[in-house]
């Protein structure tokens, strides 16, 4: 009887949890699924506190999350169910899903890798002073291929050494050295798996933005629009000064070349006329000399 009562109580709690999750899914415009791999409880608590005003965070079993997603009856949201693998957390927000991903990325922290972790990139021990005293550290570094010397009472690494390549599993020896050197090679945090918004389910790849590339595209677009507006003499706040300077310069040149006297170019017109006169006089002198027969010269 006790076991039956406990089972009924468990079923009741699960039903209440599904009901609460369903209500939240209906309430928020964006539903995100993030992976909890390597995320510690204390870190999750800190993120929940940090995101409190922007994001609701709910950890639940996948089977309950799937039931709540189905019960919400939102357009195409069941496609989110396929993304529920492993240990997950549901993120509920009215924030743009791209902003949500950026928020998660900026909230990641660096941690020291442990044995069994996968190296996210080549892990390098740089040449220089390790600040470790001579002793066991020498043999530990030697065991993972790092050459050392003793200098000024501590162990120095002779040259930069890769001790784990990207994608390799961190060995206990490597993990021990990383811990002693305080090298934090892992970036840990909530990893977005997918997000739902208005009938669309977007994967993490689709949500990932290369901000430098996007910034470059905006800059290129701005430059093209700016040049087009200049060439078309279409005034904007950004190009008005250049258009006016160009127009003023063109007007000056026209006035000078057409000998149209205005105060701004009178001196240049006179100077040009004087220069043309000297050139003409020089040319006439040459023509006159050429016209005189050779026997009359001198």
Can you characterise this structure?
- By secondary structure, this protein is of the alpha+beta class.
- Among the domains are: 128 residues, Ribosomal protein L10, N-terminal RNA-binding domain (Alpha-Beta Plaits), CATH 3.30.70.1730; 65 residues, Molybdopterin biosynthesis moea protein, domain 2.
- It has a 5-stranded antiparallel sheet with strand order 2-3-1-11-12, sandwiched between helices. A 3-stranded antiparallel sheet has the order 6-8-7, with helices on one face.
- Helix 1 crosses helix 3.
- The longest helix is centred in the first third of the chain and has 26 residues.
- It is flat.
- The mean pLDDT is 86.
The residue ranges in which pLDDT falls below 50 over 5 or more consecutive positions are none
What is the number of helical segments per DSSP (H or I, 4+ residues)? 10
Span between N and C termini? 144 Å
- The assigned CATH architecture of the domain at 2-108 and 189-209 is 2-Layer Sandwich
Nearest-integer average pLDDT: 86
Measured on Cα atoms, how large is the radius of gyration? 38 Å
Report the major sheet: 5 strands, antiparallel
CATH superfamily of the domain at 2-108 and 189-209: Ribosomal protein L10, N-terminal RNA-binding domain
Strand order, sheet with most strands = 2-3-1-11-12
Could you say which structural class the secondary elements and strand pairing correspond to?
Answer: alpha+beta
In CATH terms, what is the fold-level topology of the domain at 2-108 and 189-209?
Answer: Alpha-Beta Plaits
Shape: flat
What is the CATH class of the domain at 2-108 and 189-209? Answer: Alpha Beta
- Per DSSP E runs of 2 or more residues, the count of β-strands stands at 12
Helix content: 40-55%
How do the helices and strands follow one another from N- to C-terminus? HEHEHEHEEEHEEEHEEEHHHH
* Beta-strand percentage range: 15-25%
